[in-house]
UniProtKB/TrEMBL annotation, chain A:
GO terms for molecular function: acyltransferase activity, transferring groups other than amino-acyl groups. The keyword Membrane does not apply. Residues 8-155 form the N-acetyltransferase domain. The keyword Transcription regulation does not apply. It comes from the Archaea. Signal peptide: none annotated. This is Putative acetyltransferase.
Automatic annotation (TrEMBL), chain B:
It catalyses: ATP + protein L-histidine = ADP + protein N-phospho-L-histidine. Residues 120-165 form the PAS domain. Residues 200-258 form the PAC domain. SUPFAM superfamilies: ATPase domain of HSP90 chaperone/DNA topoisomerase II/histidine kinase, PYP-like sensor domain (PAS domain). One of its GO terms (cellular component) is membrane. It comes from the Archaea. Gene3D superfamilies: Histidine kinase-like ATPase, C-terminal domain, PAS domain. This is histidine kinase. Its EC number is 2.7.13.3. SMART domains: HATPase_c, PAS. InterPro entries: BphY/WalK/GraS-like, HATPase_C_sf, HATPase_dom, PAS, PAS-assoc_C, PAS-like_dom_sf, PAS_4. It comes from Methanoculleus chikugoensis.
Length: 174, 468
């Protein structure tokens, strides 16, 4: 933990809080959340923030999103509903907040919240072991639902070149 | 107006029509004849048939079945007189023949169209005639154009006596005097309809009144529903109104409300009485704990205390039963309902993960009670659960809210009657949960596997949930 009195909390974002997540994702491929098909989960640092100089995220600004944010988003994960399956992506922790277990917390929440469906993802190659801890297993790209596969059409099947690995998690509680 | 008056009017009307047709025929044919006798200019010969089409069209429209014979008759008279009286010419016979055929064709086409129109009107009248609800229709002038069999039975007024009548006479059977009805409100926005409450349901106006005149003077609660009759261009050509006797429904509803009130009062008295006696029992048990120190007796007192707690819980459930359905359903955030339920219970070492943040369902306001009873089952010591998870799952048939734990689960033999009202399961409150959900068409079932935990699925129909 970065400082005394900081209590991490994980919860699902409301639609009004999506802009705050978009702000965090700005450095992560410019990912944008869509309330109609996304569920976004976030780890917050709530309570009295006494030392967060090295762990910067978006501060609550003016507007309804700010009113709901009771702390600072330090890690995000998204579950997107495609017509043919659910895709996990947008798992992102700002550099300054890494190695504190925030991503593990947010992924645990996502996997529990969405455990009623099979989950698919393109995992960053180096994080395949991390996702395996949540029950994800590597699969051939052809086993991904077409709607999810579209995102990496540009890689023309060269997953190693794209440094990603298709993964799958069967529905069920952790 | 009685039946004889109507028959007289019809006969008079028929005579007038025949006289009009005959007059026009005489005028046009006679005009032709006169022109030829007096010597019409050569350029006009043979004389045109246009004037003669007027009586043919009128006759074919009014009497479609006789349209062609009348046309043939008129055309023949025209052809013969014109052929005889016109100066001879090379193509005279052909010209006259073509014009005569044209007259017959005009008569035939008008007769055909008029027949189709009559058939359409007849079909519409048949539909109205056999509607189970008392129904009448008026035209723009407020004259009755339809009065079906059901309204004849309801009011005792025969259609022969009312068709064609205006001046709000159709209101007399209901109010005892001519006055505007809902149909007039449709046509004229008539502010004097005098209904205590008129509501609009799409294009239909609906109102309910009590009239002392129907049911042989015993009075009846009747429900009016009226809407506009439109032509193909959307113009209002009249209005149709149906009247339903809802006396039985109103009386049944009133009786049920009375019974409900009495039952509520009675159960309230019983509940208070039981609670008072229970307080006395708790008092005795407290004294017993202080008075005895024999472990066997204390264990016995503890058992009695547990039984008393069970009775107290059942009193609370009966109070909740009294309240369900008393407030209208509403869109309820599920996460709030879960939190509200959790706040009333002690979880001890059992964790609760609820992941329903953006989900709202249309349900009875006592939705939190449903979760309370589901959580209570998981929290029962015999269940040995250490974790309760609440999630939701979007499916083609709706949204399933899933409440599951990692306890022992529910044996298959018990699943079937889990939500039934039975003495031994009443205390679990699952019947109450089932009833609260059923108010808005939500179902509940248990789909867990015995040995791995209980899993309750609350299935919300597609129109009953939204992710905000």
């Amino acid at each position: 933990m970065a400082a005394t009195g900081i209590r991490p909390e994980v919860r699902e974002l409301t639609s009004a809080e999506f802009p705050a997540a978009n702000e965090v994702w700005r450095d992560y491929h410019g990912t944008i959340g869509e309330p109609a098909r996304d569920r976004i989960f976030a780890t917050f640092l709530a309570g009295q923030i006494v030392s967060l100089a090295r762990c910067r995220g978006p501060r609550p600004g003016p507007g309804p999103a700010a009113a709901r944010l009771a702390g600072q988003i330090v890690s995000l994960a998204r579950c997107r509903r495609h017509p043919d399956g659910l895709e996990v992506d947008g798992v992102f922790t700002p550099d300054a907040c890494r190695n504190k277990g925030y991503a593990r917390m947010v992924m645990s929440a996502l996997v529990v919240a969405c455990h009623n469906d099979d989950l698919y993802m393109y995992a960053v190659e180096s994080l395949a072991g991390f996702y395996a801890g949540f029950g994800f297993i590597s699969i051939p790209e052809r086993d991904l639902p077409p709607g999810i596969r579209e995102r990496y059409t540009w890689a023309a099947g060269n997953m190693e070149g794209a440094e990603v690995r298709p993964m799958f998690r069967r529905a069920g509680l952790l | 107006m009685n039946v004889t008056d109507i028959q007289t009017a019809l006969v008079t009307d028929t005579r007038n029509r025949i006289a009009i047709i005959a007059g026009l025929a005489v005028l046009t044919l006679g005009g032709n004849l006169l022109a030829m006798v007096l010597g019409a200019p050569e350029s006009l010969l043979p004389l045109p048939t246009l004037p003669l089409t007027i009586p043919i069209i009128i006759a074919s429209y009014w009497y479609p079945r006789r349209g062609i014979p009348v046309s043939v008759c008129f055309a023949s008279v025209y052809a013969v007189t014109t052929y005889i009286l016109s100066p001879p010419g090379p193509l005279l016979a052909y010209t006259i023949l073509l014009r005569a055929i044209l007259l017959v064709l005009i008569g035939g086409v008008v007769a055909f169209l008029a027949t189709k129109l009559r058939e359409s009107e007849q079909q519409m009248n048949q539909i109205i005639e056999f509607l189970p609800d008392a129904t009448f229709a008026i035209d723009r002038e407020g004259k009755v154009i339809a009065w079906n069999r059901a309204i004849e039975e309801m009011t005792g007024v025969k259609k022969e006596a009312i068709l064609g009548r205006g001046g709000y006479e159709y209101a007399v059977p209901f109010y005892g005097e001519p006055r505007p009805l809902l149909a007039d409100l449709i046509l004229h926005g008539d502010p004097e309809t005098g209904y205590p409450s008129v509501r609009r349901d799409g294009d239909v106006l609906v109102a309910e009144i009590h009239t002392p005149l129907l049911r042989g003077g015993q009075g009846a609660h009747i429900k009016f529903a009226a809407t506009a009759l439109l032509d193909r261009s959307g113009e209002v050509t009249g209005a149709i109104e149906s009247i339903r006797d809802v006396s039985d429904e109103v009386m049944t509803e009133a009786a049920l409300q009375n019974a409900g009130r009495q039952l509520s009062t009675l159960t309230g008295i019983l509940r208070t009485d039981l609670a008072n006696r229970l307080a006395v029992l708790y008092g005795h048990l407290s004294v017993g704990v202080m008075k005895f120190d024999d472990p066997a007796v204390l264990s016995f007192i503890d058992d009695l205390n547990n039984a008393a707690n069970g009775i107290r819980r059942q009193i609370e459930i009966s109070r909740e039963f009294r309240d369900i359905g008393t407030s209208p359903p509403a869109w309820i955030p599920v996460q709030q309902a879960v939190r509200k339920a959790a706040a009333t219970l002690s979880f001890g070492n059992v964790s609760l993960d609820a992941w329903t943040e953006r989900l709202e369902i249309f349900a009875d306001p006592h939705l939190a009670t449903v979760f309370t009873h589901l959580f209570e089952n998981s929290l029962a010591p015999a269940t040995k659960a250490s974790r309760i998870v609440v999630t939701y799952h979007l499916r083609p048939e709706g949204c399933a809210i899933i409440v599951e734990d990692d306890g022992t689960g529910i044996p298959d033999a018990e699943k079937k009657g889990l939500f039934a009202q039975k003495a031994e399961s009443y205390g679990h409150g699952l019947f109450l949960a089932h009833e609260i959900l059923a108010i808005t068409g939500i179902s509940i079932r248990e789909t867990g596997t015995f040995g791995t935990g209980a899993r309750f699925e609350i299935l919300v129909p597609p129109e009953g949930y939204r992710v905000v």
